[in-house]
Design brief:
The protein is about 45% helix and about 20% strand. By secondary structure, the chain is of the alpha/beta class. The longest helix has 21 residues. The protein is elongated and about 70 Å long.
């Protein structure tokens, strides 16, 4: 059975639309994280939103279990920790981002990014596209493979045009097979992508690679 994880505020649609679009099935479980509200009015709105999620999913799918976790300690570090715990406990979840107050959904983004390998997929409701979309956050906790660091720097220096494996081998004064192993290692970790351009295999940075390259520039 599938498992879904989402924060919630006063808008149930930001929870239900991505979940339904992702293909929730009869018997799946939805785990909702909400804050302990400090006013009766806010508490009632939260409960109304949760009940609307139950009603909508029941009408659209059938038998769906909706479980609720109420967080009383809303410090940023604690919410990140709780979201992390919920992500890794049990079956790999489909995480829905963007719902609820910033006190919850920003920590959820941090936790989801850190645990990308433990997540089945990530959904959100796009305000721009006005539709639910699946996204792939970069695995920011991935480390560069040490032996391939210099190769990575050369790919970064090549910019948007990329660099061929033969040029990498020449610039690095190494064999083509060594350059190929380094690129494969970097590609496996999500730092670079490769494509065929005429007869050459060309490597360029992914978004994760670009972020990593910028971080390296500021740490040098």
């Amino acid at each position: 059975m599938g498992r879904y994880l989402s924060t919630i505020g006063f808008s149930p649609n930001l929870v239900t639309r991505p979940i339904i679009a992702s293909g929730i099935s009869n018997g799946d479980t939805v785990e909702i994280i909400c804050p302990e509200q400090n006013t009766e009015t806010a508490q009632n709105k939260t409960e109304d939103a949760i009940n609307a999620v139950r009603s909508t999913l029941s009408g659209a799918v059938g038998n769906v279990s909706v479980e609720v976790t109420v967080l009383t300690d809303l410090s940023f570090a604690n919410v990140v920790s709780e979201c992390s715990r919920l992500i890794i406990e049990g079956e790999s979840p489909i995480v829905c981002l963007g719902a609820g107050p910033t006190d919850l959904h920003i920590p959820m983004v941090v936790a989801a990014t850190a645990h990308q390998k433990q997540i089945e997929s990530t959904m959100m409701y796009s305000d721009i596209e006005a539709t639910p979309v699946e996204i792939t956050p970069p695995a920011l906790t991935t480390d560069l493979p040490g032996l391939a660091t210099e190769t990575f720097k050369r790919v970064a220096e090549a910019g948007d045009s990329g660099i061929s494996l033969s040029q990498l081998a020449t610039d690095g004064e190494q064999s083509r097979s060594t350059a190929s192993r380094h690129i494969q290692s970097l590609e496996d970790r999500g730092f670079v992508t490769t494509e065929k351009q005429k007869k050459a295999k060309v490597a360029s940075l992914t978004p994760l690679g670009e972020i990593t390259s910028r971080s390296m520039q500021y740490s040098d």
